[in-house]
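Q: How would the structure tokens look for this protein?
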Amino acid sequence: MCSQKEFGMNDAGVRMVTRSLSRGLGAGPRGNGEEAAPLQRGEAAAEGRKIHHPVKRQRKAQSLHVAYEASDGENGEGTKMPSWAPQDWRQQLANIRTMRSGKDAPVDHLGVEHCYDTSAPPKTKVKYIKQTSAILQQNYGGDIPASVAELVALPGVGPKMAHLAMAVAWGTVSGIAVDTHVHRIANRLRWTKKVTKHPEDTRAALEEWLPRDLWSEINGLLVGFGQQICLPVRPRCHACLNQALCPAAQ
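A: Here is the predicted structure in token form.
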């Protein structure tokens, strides 16, 4: 049996443990030095649940923003509805896609490898290619610039090739590549609000209303169409699916 002295020590120890547990469960000393009353059983259980089961915060949904390189006169801040669009352009575009489904135009097969044809006469483009190759090797480690501004600074590189390079090499839609074919066909179909005289004017006019997800497709589509059907001289309107929709064919 325990002596009275031992029993008193054990009793004091129990009181100290009980007081420590009560403080640990949230009953700390008050500002005036008095101790707070110990928590009741239900309150302690609730406090214990808060400690062991923290409240999970719900994460905010993140929106994906796709940014394009801003071209002249554009800030690249999303898509805005055009104030003007040509009549029947969707049907005209669908018909051109049908006529180009064979992918058998010269643009679909010819490439830069023909610059190495030893039997071909010297051309200005070949000179530009040699000069540009030297600049790329010296300034870009054999790679190409990743911006339209740097691309057009290279010898012989204009806006058309710069936008094509951005799309093909870097996967960035920076603008519509407009050459003589795209320029001619866009005016014949009245895809510009007013007649344009230069390819850059046509590019700006097209970019005002044509949905951006179609910009990368337009060049190859219209170039091949212009090489086979919508020729510069004596266009083959009788073979064109847009004959009834084309203002120039009326």
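The two ends are 121 Å apart (CA to CA).

Confidence is low (pLDDT under 50) at residues 2-31, 51-78.

Upvote if useful.
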